[in-house]
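Hmm, how's this folded?
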Amino acid sequence: MASKIGVWIDHRKAILVSFNDGVEVVHEIDSDAEKHVRDAGGSGSGSSHGSQDVVAGDKRDRKFMNHLNTYYDQVIQQFEHTEGIVIIGPGEAKGELDKRITSKEMRKHILLVETADKMTTPQLVAKMRSCFELADHVA
């Protein structure tokens, strides 16, 4: 595997940039998760099935989190045998991924967890190169 790897992640996809001897490889992992939407219902919704709605919502939330955990595990598999890991992204996924990394050996290689908006692939590669203090790659 790569000696250094950076990931931009949200709940829908992860874009991984790996560096080995200064050469980058970019690849994407889709979560295949449907957008997590909460019901707009509530006490004022006129529904007489309030407790059933809560149970259904809890079940849906658990199913979504289980799906995300499987997705995070796929991303974490890419981190094996790395010397440096950078995790960036716009929302909660970066923190959830960070928490999902339980291996002490892998955890000590996390260099940075940072908020970052959506980026183009060249912007992401440049950001990761900067994070790892690598010289620009000349083709």
Observations:
- Residues 36 and 52 are 19 Å apart (CA to CA).
- Residues 36-46, 135-139 have pLDDT under 50 and may be disordered.
- The chain has one domain: 4-33+51-131.
- Strands lie at 4-9, 13-20, 23-30, 84-89, 110-115.
